[in-house]
Amino acid sequence: MKLHRKAYLSAFISFLIGTLFMCIFFYNSTIRIAIACYYYTLIAGIVNFSIFVLLMLKSLTNQKMKHKYYKGSAILFINIPVVLLYVFFSTKLKDTIRIEVVNATDSTISNLQISGCEDDAFISKLNESESNTKWILVKNICNISIDYELEGKTYSEKILEKVGPNMGHQLSYRVGLHQKD
After folding, report:
1. Mind giving me the DSSP string for the chain?
2. Could you list the residue range(s) of the whole structural domain that residue 128 is in?
3. Which of 69, 83, 121, 144 could be stapled to 160 by a disulfide with Cβ–Cβ 3.0 to 4.6 Å?
């Protein structure tokens, strides 16, 4: 296979695998996935940079194929903004708690206020077994709690305590199981 075609293939495969890792990390924000993404990015970066250097060296010695080598280099460089976008998004995810609030009662819950971590969220109502996901940005160590109304009474529950930056994850919280006045 010609070198410029290897560059196209490498760029395409790098993009697909990187996107797959990003999707897995989005749905399963675990440290194992983050570490795998880090090593994959390192290996893919070395491979793609090596191909880029070879393309540049070949373009100096083969004037006839120079245009194709430059095109292969450009295709490899298209992945750089994608990687930067994925790094930015991953950084935001690691500072975000994604809470799926699930109504665990037999009644409608209303005026759900999730508070803490300088980033409040509001859900007007949840019918029986209904859920709603809210994203809470975590800038400092804080607690996350929820206040809600059920059958005319106001309740307050703690969802998480001592959450800090870089502790991002997702969870499902069943509201209404720990009712306290």
Report:
1. --HHHHHHHHHHHHHHHHHHHHHHHHHS--HHHHHHHHHHHHHHHHHHHHHHHHHHHHHHH-GGGHHHHHHHHHHHHHHHHHHHHHHHHHHHHHTEEEEEEEE-SSS-EEEEEEE-TT--EEEEEE-TT-EEEEEEE--SSEEEEEEEEETTEEEEEEEEEEE-TT--EEEEEEETSS---
2. 97-175
3. 144
